[in-house]
Amino acid sequence: xxxxxxxxxxxxxxxxxxxxxxxxxxxxxxxxxxxxxxxxxxxxxxxxxxxxxxxxxxxxxxxxxxxxxxxxxxxxxxxxxxxxxxxxxxxxxxxxxxxxxxxxxxxxxxxxxxxxxxxxxxxxxxxxxxxxxxxxxxxxxxxxxxxxxxxxxxxxxxxxxxxxxxxxxxxxxxxxxxxxxxxxxxxxxxxxxxxxxx
Length: 198
Description:
Strands 2-3-1-4-5 form a five-stranded parallel β-sheet, covered by helices on one side. It is of the alpha/beta class. It contains nine helices and five strands; from the N terminus they run βαβααβααβαααβα. Helix 3 (54-71) packs antiparallel against helix 4. It is globular and about 45 Å long. Helices cover 56% and strands 14% of the residues. The longest helix has 20 residues, at 177-196. The chain has one domain (5-196): P-loop containing nucleotide triphosphate hydrolases (Rossmann fold), CATH 3.40.50.
């Protein structure tokens, strides 16, 4: 799996992860770059028991990601949420009893088990716009609703700040679609060009 190039979109609900990951995939495909796009739960067979348990749902999402990585033969794979989301939701639902070092250690072990992303796009947008985007969805789940709670926002902001490294790029989606897309492509083509020059 190590030869694969992993591109990840992270961020709170309603910031545009699904929208821009889809736009990016379509643009890369038009450039004759074979790329897959998966959500964190691309199998859609999580049980109610798993949904209701922080640990069972965490294991389900990690195994779902692992299966996709093993079965997908494309060089480039985009994930709409990845390991950071799986771990973050587990911590949030568990009451986040771990300290910063323990969180980073667990995250790195998960990266070793699967693949550490080459690029993680951390999308942000103003709260009012994010709230509007959420309520424009066809279906709204508890994750969407809870993401609007102040305590949840604080948790995710602190969590992403903790785990961000040189592979993270912060992008605000409060700009024009063209501007955001061009920014994404500028970062992505660095990876594509590096790979093609090998």
